[in-house]
Amino acid sequence: MRQRQVYEILHQQILSGIYPPGSRLPASRQLAAELGTSRMTLQTAVQQLVAEGLLLTRPGSGVYVAETVPSGSGHPVEPHFSAWAERLRHAPFLQRQGMRGSQLRSFAASFPYDIWRRMLGRYLSTDDAILNRYGSPAGFGPLREAIAAKVARLRGVNCTAEQVIIVSGIQQALDILARLLIDPGDEVVVENPGYVSAYRVFVVYGADLQPVPVDRSGMIVSDILAESRARLAFVTPANQFPRGGAMSLERRLALLDWAARQQALIIEDDYDGELRYDGQPLAALQSLDRDGRVIYLGTFSKVLFPALRLGYVILPEVLHRPFLHARQLLDRGAPTLTQAAAADFIAEGHFERHLKKLRQLYRVRRQLLVESLESRLGSIVRFTGEPAGLHVWLTLTGGLSEGDVLPRLQAHELPIYPGSPYFLTPDASTNLIFNFSELTEEQIVASVDILGREILSKV
Amino acid sequence: MRQRQVYEILHQQILSGIYPPGSRLPASRQLAAELGTSRMTLQTAVQQLVAEGLLLTRPGSGVYVAETVPSGSGHPVEPHFSAWAERLRHAPFLQRQGMRGSQLRSFAASFPYDIWRRMLGRYLSTDDAILNRYGSPAGFGPLREAIAAKVARLRGVNCTAEQVIIVSGIQQALDILARLLIDPGDEVVVENPGYVSAYRVFVVYGADLQPVPVDRSGMIVSDILAESRARLAFVTPANQFPRGGAMSLERRLALLDWAARQQALIIEDDYDGELRYDGQPLAALQSLDRDGRVIYLGTFSKVLFPALRLGYVILPEVLHRPFLHARQLLDRGAPTLTQAAAADFIAEGHFERHLKKLRQLYRVRRQLLVESLESRLGSIVRFTGEPAGLHVWLTLTGGLSEGDVLPRLQAHELPIYPGSPYFLTPDASTNLIFNFSELTEEQIVASVDILGREILSKV
User: Fold this and answer.
1) ipTM of this predicted structure
2) Top-confidence residue, A33 or A190
């Protein structure tokens, strides 16, 4: 047995009270035999423990455990939790499952790993100091440049590279924004149904959520309460999550108007704005904002891969310094290597080539799903018709609810999920989310068959 | 010019008021000429803008800018900042430079990039689904296993892999702990001088810092105020930052005693506990903790490379769920690829091989620095003698202060920094930090020469 192991065993035996404080250790010959080691190895371990003060030698008498060896106080540990932690621990709302991330995952199966490997490889040489330094908390410069150009090109966003801050994903951006902008009791206007993972963050910061219904044209802005004192709104204008549908220009302008009247800021979560399969998408809400009220959030999780952990925020001037300071305080920035690879991936056109491929792939799958649903379940199921995103939102008619269908579907492991977790109001349980992005064409047809059988057996 | 560019230019011209709301666009032939494009391309762009509602066509009359085009409210944007944000924006303490990260950087020049590249390469194949999934918020399982084994082996930490949570670095761990454990007005016991980047986090959460002096045996625990109501302490026992020196066993036991009496938790920041150059380091404070009061923080920034952005927390049972929930809420976890590579790097022995190399390298550099300082400046400068870490903490005597020396050193760009930013008390300005980790032996000798010349010219 090596000296280090002997040391560890003795150390544990002393701390765990096998040799109590003040007691004498067995003679070295006996102890070495017990531990299955040599006396010399034992001796070195004992010397280390003497140096640490856990043992002491009394010449001529042997080795003793120190009197001061800690034995534990016996008090149970009861941490003093903050108000934030208490909200985190006790909000029942937080126990519900959120799904845009983990369950509604996008398997970018066609992702060009060989190119990605090449991008990474460039920066993995000893000559390059890039890995050795802490990155800028705002993010890697060339990636910020590439993103600014990309969002202008693809999403009509008005910004300079300086406005772009790299985050580990939309979730981190939401957390930083919530801590900068929400005090306990503050009202926040949100879509209902909506992206509950965002709402969790707001609630743990003490927000009073004000759910506003959505229809096929996004948040019904005129339904925001007249007496609302909200100074913050959260929307998914490109493709309302989870219902689907782009926010109309009229609503966008109404929301900007509301924000100007309220002196409010708007968080635009553009999580999949690039995944539109039919013509040009509407430009981002941010492109209509002349005041600097819109905070734009984007991510690489949907088009590249989720485990990449890279997202970005495009901030109005007034929020730039506070956000950057907060980012710096809480996390020194995203890994430089990944950022450098992503920057090249975008700048060299791989991003848009891959996006084009994904759009084709998903367009076909979505189209097939919609046609299959229509022919098989057209009379019983309604669904949004927007050619975008990774899932289709289904509404059951004829008094059917998700509970009638989902339990029986479980055995088939289809990517079909309940809609109710996305509602802030308890009344809605007639919706299903059908994620088509992972399924082959054959699987789509087969899945609709199974779904159809289950639904029709209930009607 | 491509259609998209034409669209973007028109879009901007409309929003920026070059074509005001209600106005008529120039005839298409004229506009196409102005924009340097074909009429067909222009036509497609105009159709897109019509679809978005920014333009409208009046048959026989031409194309008009919609009346509802947003022009900005004219109100300046005044966000409602949270109390947290106000503390962030106005704490003068926050403006001071912290340096353990960006300035006291460790250049792991001897890092085996070829091995790292190989580890990454393994997971970069299309066959492996690892990149496609969101990781667990606790971290990648095999990495947690590897860390639990490593900290037991190298630092005597008692833990299971379940107690290990991967974070993006010590800074993120501190942020999560602060939000879980600190309410405005809560007292926190900290070392002085100390790791101010941690203190910033605490202060922005509203902490009332209670600085406790340190000497060569770490925090002088008996100096904690008897009337303290602190439920949290922050220490760097392995190698006090920035002064250097390991906390003695007696002080460690006293601190654990204090924590049991106060019902307090202790954050053990073991940022460089592995970088000890002379025999076995003392085991971590965590190894003496029988109650579950010590939260252990470790990082790969010092031994691997800072831009890796991987650290870990080893949590007492009672904090595990709240920490994990918080981590999940604020950030979906570290990039899986990096974690997988790090897991293999440790499990296959590369970590400890590299650590051994670094220890040899830094031992020699540190020894040379200490000897050079002694022979050249022994009478004027005192320094801590602990063979550990990446820098040496110097104390100037004879009435010299950092301001007497540093301005004249600036032109030489030596890695020598003022000590005063690490103090919470305003009286101390007689210390310098000499970071030897980046310097070759020749550079160390030359640097001490320069430093010696500047100091001796002032005596």
Assistant:
1) 0.82
2) A190
